[in-house]
Amino acid sequence: MLSLDLHPLFRNNRDIELALRQFVFRAHRSGEPVAEIIPGKGTGQLRNRVLAFLGQKHIRKLYDRVKVSEANTGRVLVHFTPR
Asked: For 3-6, which contacts have Cβ atoms below 8 Å and span 24 or more sequence positions?
């Protein structure tokens, strides 16, 4: 499973956006069924930013569904349609 940890980038909006964009495109191309984004628990602001990014129309076309892990709310799972 591909994984992206956003902890080192949490203060820089441009770096977060770029990292998310590159990661989602790479995960989509890889053929992996699930990719993990780790925004961390914290206040939930970074998780909400990740979910807003994933909700954009042009990004939404790349994956099947998104799920915030029930066991760990600091983990977002992105499910891709198998090729």
From this structure: 3/35, 3/36, 3/37, 3/38, 4/35, 4/36, 4/37, 4/38, 5/38, 6/37, 6/38, 6/39, 6/40, 6/46, 6/50
Q: Strand order of the sheet with strand 2-5? A: 2-5, 34-38, 76-79, 65-68
Helix (H, G, I), strand (E, B) or coil at 61: coil
For 16-49, the DSSP string reads HHHHHHHHHHHHHHHT-SEEEEE--STTSHHHHH
- How far, in Å, CA of 70 to CA of 68, rounded? 6
Quote the pLDDT of residue 61: 95
Residues in the chain with pLDDT values less than 70? 83
Can you give the pTM of this predicted structure? Answer: 0.93
